[in-house]
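Hey,
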Amino acid sequence: MHSSRKATARWLSRLGLAAALLAAGCRGSGPGPARAAAGVRTAGCPRCGGAVRIGALPRGDADECSGVVAGAVHPGTLYLHNDSGDRPRFFAIGLDGALRGEIEVAGARAVDWEGAARGPCGAGGGSCLLFGDIGDNDRERDRYALYEVREPAALGGARRAAAAEVISLAYPDGRHNAETLLVHPVTGAITVVTKVKKKKDSAGIYELSTRPAAGQTATLVGAGPIAAPIGSRSFTGGDVRADGAGVLLRTSSHVFFYPMAPDQTVAQALTGPPCDMPAADEDQGEAIAWLPGGWDYVTIGEGDEAPIHRVSCQAP
């Protein structure tokens, strides 16, 4: 989101969250049958505690976190990037927020980076990070881009550089603003969830199952609408479990879990009713990521030394 709109957006986010909490009460361990809203799943949901602060972003340049994803190569490492206005780079931090590295992305531009994901590399195997230059608040861009970077083999020390594979994207039905980038952990298929501008609008799900040839632009395929069942209607981030068992989507006020069967695509999983999960009170909350090895997840808002929150869950 552009910095000129942040103050208004944060005020609206807090207002929406307050209204949601008054309506639904405290969501410490997921929804119960007595208070489940229409469209919210009440069975097959992870059992969770409340959001707990475990750290904060390091003081310095990582001050507008707009996407985060957990690494696979370095245990306990999160990769995150800033919102629009920064150069093409990302940061590696520990779960407590301690800075572990800064990586410049060669061959990339940073118009409006919104969303980070991890999945199988498009070529050569291994684990790759994807950063989505998919933000478009004013709906004025004709092309969008994803930057695929192999997960760093080493961290620490001086600032590093990483080469990026560029995936150029376009929508089949015009221009869209998006902040949610999802990658299937097995197939590598890419899913983008758009962000609505007005309450009456519906967000859309778009998929890319095959990477385009070098220098070509891929047209995403529409896979239907999606709406948050409660709270804010604007999806601001998401992540797919590394075992493919489900998808997290977040808004500024809520977190939702969509179970995913082994034979489903991400888009198919998003058509079902979600579980209402615990959500922290964060300024301009956009970043969310599963943690490896269990059912815990972390969320981060924007701002200097923004808190890192962890929600501990057990399997459904």
